């Protein structure tokens, strides 16, 4: 479906009828040959935007997949860059594709983002393209976990695109995808949680504030601006107070 190295339509169907964890275990060997992987230009733009905010000692890539975000952290962090994901298959691919060189130590942890095994361990947490796997009601717990994993003064950063306008074909494609997933999850178990239109900026900012973060939005100029002058993509930077100790 995505070229000779990507998954076939049959493989995608099997993955879609699995749990999220098992589906990604199956997809892992071919994940980097699909459009689901975060594009390199997004990773590069985030790296450029974060660089002036450093220096950082230790970084965590939340829901790291095959490790593209850990590569970003390896260029920003002086001591360690860690990826956490609950798919053993994705982590196995990441271990082979992201190897320590002359930069910080690289680490991989199998774990659930909703129950992170870290407390005040990182200066920077990033995440790329994973938030569709969390229902809106899970955001308070997710953001609380990230807050606990950060040291005082640490930052939680992730890119967020502007909403697709209703006149654009992509709007209807994403709306249709979410509708299909809702029907699938109503009729089939285990559920496969992946929605493109549930992670909304207003809700995200409110939940970050509720978790104790101070948040700023930084335009990613590489992606230009919409007709109304607003950025097509932003970097959300949520910072934990320097006055807080631990979680």
UniProtKB/TrEMBL annotation:
Keywords: Methyltransferase, S-adenosyl-L-methionine, Transferase
Pfam families assigned to the protein according to its UniProt record, in alphabetical order: Methyltransf_25 (PF13649)
InterPro entries documented for this protein: Methyltransf_25 (IPR041698), SAM-dependent_MTases_sf (IPR029063)
A biological process term (GO) from this entry: methylation
Domain named Methyltransferase: residues: 60-154
SUPFAM superfamilies per UniProt: S-adenosyl-L-methionine-dependent methyltransferases (SSF53335)
GO molecular function, one term: methyltransferase activity
Domain of life (superkingdom): Bacteria
UniProt-listed PANTHER family: METHYLTRANSFERASE, UBIQUINONE BIOSYNTHESIS O-METHYLTRANSFERASE, MITOCHONDRIAL
UniProt-recorded name of the protein: SAM-dependent methyltransferase
Organism: Streptomyces griseofuscus
Lineage: Bacteria, Bacillati, Actinomycetota, Actinomycetes, Kitasatosporales
